[in-house]
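thought: user wants a sequence for this fold. calling inverse folding tool.
action: design(structure=
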């Protein structure tokens, strides 16, 4: 992480400290900033002795100067099963009180970048939704600046698997040739299947193959999907449930490779 040469070096300690620990920054531009809270308890962000925000998880990502105003970019999360957090901004204008903006009402990952006299926050588009963009300025705080349309990637998704650059099954939904093949296999249930794959989940490589599992946020155990991609013969093996009981399997389980059947069995036992 880069720090502005105009900001105190001790801020590095603030940004690298774990949220579960109390962090005390003495006189940051004539203001005290303190993060209080023990492990497994709600944390409180204190500025000049007053509470400005509280949540189970609070941290800091960056320190920037925006139009001459020192700014801390942080994040806040409640620790739910989504494991997501939302950004906030703490700013220190020279001619006024410290200002706290956010957290933004957004759970999906949001990146930020300093552009001119503003911080631009961006949420990447996904196959089932547009991305969004917000601009933060010292004068106005947050304002939404528009949507970012999704476009499919034209590279061969099978080659991307060989590069080991996929870590979540939903990432494969960004490649046109992969989506076209899955639509043929899954059929009318594709939209539901894709939505689940784009949810909370993870993936792993098994030799040349990739296995991924994901679920609908807040409905894990009820709405879940798995994807086994055999890179060698360029075939998919898919399964999903929308009620935590009935499991749909494509193709028939008798056609699944041995290690794919093993993963399917473990997945079914996790909720049935």
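)
observation: tool returned 272 residues.
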């Amino acid at each position: 992480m880069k720090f502005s040469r105009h900001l105190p070096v001790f801020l590095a300690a603030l940004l690298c400290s774990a949220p579960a620990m109390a962090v005390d920054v003495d006189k940051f531009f004539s203001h005290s900033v303190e993060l209080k809270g023990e492990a497994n308890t709600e944390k409180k962000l204190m500025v000049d002795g007053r509470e400005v925000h509280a949540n189970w998880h609070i941290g800091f990502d960056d320190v920037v100067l925006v139009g001459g105003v020192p700014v801390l970019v942080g994040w806040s999360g409640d620790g739910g099963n989504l494991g997501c957090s939302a950004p906030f901004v703490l700013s220190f204008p020279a001619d006024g009180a410290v200002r706290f903006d956010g957290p933004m009402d957004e759970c999906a990952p949001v990146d930020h970048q300093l552009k001119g006299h503003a911080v631009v926050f961006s949420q990447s588009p996904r196959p089932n939704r547009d991305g969004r963009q917000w601009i933060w300025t010292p004068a106005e705080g947050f304002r939404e600046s528009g949507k970012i349309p999704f476009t499919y990637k034209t590279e061969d998704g099978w080659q991307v698997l060989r590069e080991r650059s996929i870590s979540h099954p939903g990432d494969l939904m960004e490649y046109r040739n992969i989506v076209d093949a899955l639509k043929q296999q899954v059929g009318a249930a594709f939209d539901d299947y894709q939505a689940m794959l784009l949810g909370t989940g993870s993936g792993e490589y098994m030799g040349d193959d990739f296995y991924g599992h994901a679920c609908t946020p807040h409905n894990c155990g009820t709405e879940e999907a798995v994807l086994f991609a055999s890179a060698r013969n360029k075939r998919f093996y898919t399964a999903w449930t929308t009620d935590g009981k009935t499991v749909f399997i494509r193709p028939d389980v008798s056609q699944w490779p041995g290690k794919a059947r093993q993963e399917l069995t473990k997945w079914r036992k996790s909720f049935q």
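thought: summarizing for user.
answer: Here is the designed sequence. Residues 1-26 have pLDDT under 50 and may be disordered.
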